[in-house]
């Protein structure tokens, strides 16, 4: 988090790399100045011992830092190896997936071809042979010829009935004209008789 980062930043500013090296160096400088300005031999020896102690602490801290650095290098190498192994595993997985896709496509093609073959086999199985087909075609040809004759006979009969019907209609029309003429003639005769009777009465 941001608060943790701020704490680490302040500690690095105060303690150098966080191990107190700046404080130790400051103590060493102060001890050296006091050793240089020491009045008595006893005080000089005391400051000298303090400098040795501070130097030992600095050497220990430096050794620890080197060990941590070496450990970090080994960890980085280990992480790089793990990362490469993961990359290789991913690449191998991609190759396997690609191969599986090819196998799936091939299986789909085989299945499709098998289905088409089965469908074609069923059609061939239900399809009659050539000899049987020719016999059926010959029978159909004879039936077609027979139907053609029947059709011609029916058309001839229809034509005859049409002519007969036309003659019948003409006869009916002539008869109707005759009846109308007879009716008109009767009306004229009745009118003439009525007129003659009227003249006789006069």
From TrEMBL:
Keywords: Coiled coil, Nucleus. This is THOC7 protein. It comes from Grantiella picta. Component of the THO subcomplex of the TREX complex which is thought to couple mRNA transcription, processing and nuclear export, and which specifically associates with spliced mRNA and not with unspliced pre-mRNA. Required for efficient export of polyadenylated RNA. Plays a key structural role in the oligomerization of the THO-DDX39B complex. Belongs to the THOC7 family. The keyword Coiled coil applies. PANTHER family: MAINTENANCE OF KILLER 16 MAK16 PROTEIN-RELATED, THO COMPLEX SUBUNIT 7 HOMOLOG. One of its GO terms (biological process) is mRNA export from nucleus. Residues 181-202 are annotated as: Disordered. The keyword Nucleus applies.
């Amino acid at each position: 988090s941001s608060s943790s980062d701020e704490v680490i930043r302040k500690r690095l500013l105060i303690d150098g790399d966080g191990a107190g090296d700046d404080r130790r160096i400051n103590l060493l400088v102060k001890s050296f100045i006091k050793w240089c300005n020491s009045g008595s031999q006893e005080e000089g020896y005391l400051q000298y011992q303090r400098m040795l102690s501070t130097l030992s602490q600095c050497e220990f801290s430096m050794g620890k830092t080197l060990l941590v650095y070496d450990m970090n290098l080994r960890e980085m190498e280990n992480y790089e190896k793990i990362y490469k192994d993961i990359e290789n595993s991913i690449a191998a997985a991609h190759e396997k997936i690609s191969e599986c896709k090819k196998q799936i496509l091939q299986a789909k093609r085989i299945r499709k071809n098998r289905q088409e073959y089965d469908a074609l086999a069923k059609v061939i199985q239900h399809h009659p042979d050539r000899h049987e087909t020719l016999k059926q075609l010959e029978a159909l040809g004879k039936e077609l010829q027979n139907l053609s004759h029947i059709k011609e006979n029916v058309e001839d009969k229809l034509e005859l009935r049409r002519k007969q019907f036309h003659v019948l209609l003409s006869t009916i029309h002539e008869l109707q004209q005759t009846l109308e003429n007879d009716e008109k003639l009767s009306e004229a005769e009745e009118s003439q008789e009525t007129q003659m009777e009227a003249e006789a009465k006069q």
